[in-house]
Amino acid sequence: MASTNDSWVLISGASGGFGEEFARQYAAKGHPLVLVARRLDRLQTLAESLRRAYGVNVLVEQVDLSDVHAIGQLHSRLRDQDIAVDILINNAGHGLQGPFLDAPLDAAMAMVQLDIASLTAMTRLFGQDMRQRRRGRILLVASLLAHYGVQNMAVYGAAKAYVLRLGDALHREFKRDGVTVTSLCPGMSDTGFAQAAKQKITFALKLLMMKPEPVVRAGIRALQAGRISVVPGWANKSAVAMVWATPRWMHQAIFARLMNG
Fold first, then answer.
1. For the chain: N or C, fewer Cβ within 10 A?
2. Contact between residue 159 and residue 112 where contact means Cβ atoms under 8 Å apart
3. pLDDT in tens, 32-63
4. pLDDT at residue 151, as a whole number
5. Is residue 148 flagged as an active site residue?
6. Looking at the keywords, is Oxidoreductase present (predicted)?
7. Cβ partners under 8 Å of residue 35, min gap 6
8. What is the CATH number of domain 8-260?
9. What does the pLDDT average to over 217-231?
10. Could you tell me the pTM of the whole model?
């Protein structure tokens, strides 16, 4: 199937939310896609709709991204098919709201595994290929919560802080090899994440909620421009500015109230 752009884009967590929107926006630009997630039925439905709408090549890969060994197998399969991933959208992630000591240990460790270990493995494997070709772009999807710890979302915020700081460091490390690394830090967004994370939607969060389209558009633009990171939306930018402008005890209290009501 012909495409107007031969740069393959791999999107993890592509079966919904930001991942699905990244797939739509890159397909509209004519890129061939590798869609990766656990939910095969949703991937296949999305792939078929993108092929019909945009005439792009779409490869579906059902992978449990919490399994680092499975990520290695995915990488090998794509290399065997001579698919060179030029753009990696490291989007897969998991969140859970609630008191740290009330959540099962398995739930916390699953979050660390997917949000930290698996993202690191994806970045390492596909980043190495990009360095050898001396071209490529990697977008790490972090979160606004990467900028501060929030009561009842301790592990998720800490995991996303890792993602952001990893992106900061790799932006400089990879730049000399012709590879761009950009971190995207979205705030509250209408993606279904909050429901899956059992997150309380306070009145303030409803007012701040963004649609996925402008968030993804901001991420793609920042990646294309070679920026180190981006926070979409003026309200979210203001929240980050407040972190740097106020004492920790103050903004921690404010954001705890905002997130938990």
1. N
2. yes
3. 999 999 999 999 999 999 999 999 999 999 99
4. 86
5. no
6. yes
7. 11, 14, 15, 19, 23, 43, 46, 47, 58, 59, 60, 61
8. 3.40.50.720
9. 97
10. 0.89
